[in-house]
Amino acid sequence: MKRPRFLPDNFTLAMIATVIAASVFPCHGQGEIIFNNITHVAVSLLFFLHGAKLSREAVVAGITHWRLHLLVMLCTFALFPLLGLLLKPVLTPLVTPDLYLGILFLCMLPSTVQSSIAFTAAARGNVPAAICSASASNLFGIFLTPLLVGLLTSAQMAGGSPLDSALQIALQLLLPFIAGQIARRWIGAWVERNKALTRLVDQGSILLVVYTAFSEAVGQGLWHELSWATLAGLMVVNALLLGLVMFISAQAARRLGFNREDRIAIVFCGSKKSLASGVPMAKVLFAGGALGAVVLPLMLFHQLQLMVCAVLAQRYAKEVD
Predict the structure, then answer these.
(1) How far apart are CA 199 and CA 191, in angstroms?
(2) Arithmetic mean of pLDDT over the chain
(3) What distances in angstroms separate CA 79 from CA 88, 108, 241, 288, 302, one per listed residue?
(4) 76 near 137, Cβ under 8 Å?
(5) Neighbour tally for 10: CB within 10 Å
(6) Which among 107, 155, 188, 277 is least surrounded, fewest beta carbons within 10 Å?
(7) Cβ pair 84, 297 in contact under 8 A
(8) Any stretches that span the bilayer, and where are they (predicted)?
(9) Does the pTM of the predicted model rise above 0.85?
(10) What is the pLDDT of residue 77?
(11) Ranges of each domain in the chain
(12) How confident is the model at residue 57 (pLDDT cuts 50, 70, 90)?
């Protein structure tokens, strides 16, 4: 039977089911401790596999294109946070204070890796540069995101300095990634042959974090505080942010003289935010806080960026054809 076109992808359906499960059967007490420990192991395994999968040859092929990478980094860690702050008078009437905190957190996250590369390839863009740029964004994000969060939202952090948070995130994300890079010579080929395993760990770790985050949020009365109007306002805010960054990054790349392939990589790498990195970071940075409300804008933004970029990639590809 053919899949209906209006039906979301399986991962989106799984996330919706996870949120429903956390709302109806939230974990608490000893169960919460067990789920948190399993989640920690799953996230560390995810970044270990990413480290084992990333080709050094691909990184070297794109690393010399420093102007492109600098522009992507500026879009990711400067333009996004600046827009989040400048648009505060427009955004705050549409969402709750906790959701606005989640929007600011979203603005400080690194770019995605898999989807940035996949959409760049589908649009016939500069794939080696996209691999290097998206990977560098994630590595720098391990340190830059906690520092930005500490600088702009220090009052809402879980406690400790931004450097302490960066150290915690580095231990959970960067250390497994480096271990994966070291182990690549022995297991790299096996990981490449078993991409379904990486996808399973990737999606499974996100679902585990979403479940624990929303279990905690349900206990804090998240759904009693959110209305349909607030959720609609959140979608408008996400669409506004994504549209502005895509337009500004495309215009900047054009005016700076980048060719078509480079402009595609800049738009796709510079406009995305990583759910795989963002959810574990939120769990460290906002532990004990309004974690569900902080993660919700990122979850919605993730779906929106995938749908918009899929349409955009098809348009770019048709231009070449």
Answers:
(1) 11
(2) 81
(3) 14, 9, 10, 29, 18
(4) yes
(5) 10
(6) 155
(7) no
(8) 39-56, 68-87, 99-122, 129-153, 165-184, 226-250, 281-301
(9) no
(10) 95
(11) 27-320
(12) low
